[in-house]
Amino acid sequence: TDEKFELYKYYQKVVHSSAESSSELQPEGFIDFLCKTPLINRPAVAPEDPECGFGSFHQMYRLDGKLIAVGILDVLPHCLSSTYFIYNPDYSYLSLGVISALREIQFVKNVLLRSPDSPFRYYYLGYYVHTCSKVRYKSSYRPSEMLCPITLQWVPMEKVEKLLDKKKFCRFGSSDAPRQPPVYNATQLGQWIRSYSLIIGGTPCLLVNLTEESQKRIGGMLHEFVKLAGDEVAVRLSYFFS
User: Fold this and answer.
1) Which residues is 54 bridged to in the sheet?
2) Whole-angstrom Cα distance, residue 140 to residue 104?
């Protein structure tokens, strides 16, 4: 909506010093960044599902009817992922980012209170950059864990912070844990890729539904991705192409 776009522009200009003429402050930039999504929204079906269903959503915060903040959220089968947050800088004194995080944590808790066995039980704050002051706040929410990029173990944030204070990139999983390289089966790779869910221009399809030229081009990209990410991750994703 125009209301969200105006809030987004004001936030980007004041908080991130974006120039008025920059492409990100145009309607198309706003739509590409915060409105388009590769996720397909679907309603809640099972009792343990979040009542809003699954997909991408905008959580709006109003004060006396005025829109002062918007949280951009992905509601996934196992977690609520906080992907971005914009707010009116005139209301910085309200700590709106903290309010939104607590509200989102409570959202997950409410699902578990209603259905204790629900797989929907995690809250993701997204990327963490230890040397960036704008995202360091994420480490203040406890208990929390970070995924070790080498061992793929989840490690308590208290331990991670101490290690990152000394070195920008390091292994913070246990020393006896083996390195976890991506695993893929080359003989089954082609068969799996043909069955992967693709979303092209907003339309779900399979690789075999495409032209021969598109199959070669997109199939090549999928091959490279599987080699990097491994089978376990690759087969659980849908692939979005604009």
Assistant:
1) 42
2) 15
